[in-house]
Amino acid sequence: MTVLPPIEEKARYVERMFAQIAPGYDRVNRVMTFGLDQGWRRRVVEYVAPPVGGRSLDVGTGTGDFLPELAAWSRDGLAVGVDFTLPMMVAGQPKLDALGARSSHFVGGDALCLPFPDQTFDAITTGFVMRNVTDIRQAFAEMHRVARPGAMVACLEVARPRNPVIRLGHRLYFEGVVPWIGQLLGGDRRAYTYLPQSARAFPSPDRLADLMREAGWNYVAYRLYGLGAVAIHVGAKT
Ligand SMILES: C[S@@+](CC[C@H](N)C(=O)[O-])C[C@H]1O[C@@H](n2cnc3c(N)ncnc32)[C@H](O)[C@@H]1O
What we know:
Elements: H1 7-21, H2 25-32, H3 37-48, E1 55-59, H4 67-74, E2 78-83, H5 86-99, E3 104-108, E4 121-127, H6 136-146, E5 147-158, H7 164-186, H8 191-200, H9 205-214, E6 218-225, E7 230-236
Parallel strand pairs: 1-2, 1-4, 2-3, 4-5
Antiparallel strand pairs: 5-7, 6-7
Helix pairs in contact: 2-7, 6-9, 7-8
S-adenosylmethionine is lined by residues 11, 14-15, 18, 60-62, 65, 83-85, 88, 110-112, 127-129, 132-133.
């Protein structure tokens, strides 16, 4: 049975879902990915290489898992996480407090209409967000608008392994086990049923690369990680 909402209800559905799972979100992520998710995020930040003193942006930041790494790279610069689900950012606030950095901030806002002027950021990241937006091309176009010339974007998202055996194992795990992990550790089976279903409906890595190009990004390329279960796409604003 599908739990995917109709497109016109998707944004509201997504916001409500993440508000509900916010307190257990990080815990479920670590368990569900066997602790690999933080390594993938570090790799994403390496790809965009925020310059010292520069400004970086994480779109759909959730609990702000990218922000400590972005802040570490830009040191006395600025790291901003934008999201439209307030409880996710509230759950992540202790991470920013622990940084003790005045230069990391959460901002409420929509990825499809970012609340920043043109050419503001030197580096842009986004992780596990594009599956949830109603218009992927528009989200990448907004990132392109707020990027300075020379800035890089990197996008971490789920993918479906190409090897048929791994693909089958991945499907059994993702569709059979993950919802139960979500129920046990996050208290919400439905949200973790949405996850594999939204992943199935998500464009292939090649198609996602095309959408980035159509949104204005140049030198778009991607690499697969986690036996092909996730992809990191990168692009540059020239
Ligand atoms: C799966 S979480 C990912 C959080 C974080 N990026 C990470 O790596 O863990 C997806 C996040 O995207 C946010 N999101 C989805 N659509 C959005 C939109 N249109 N504008 C802003 N945030 C959005 C959700 O609120 C949620 O916090």
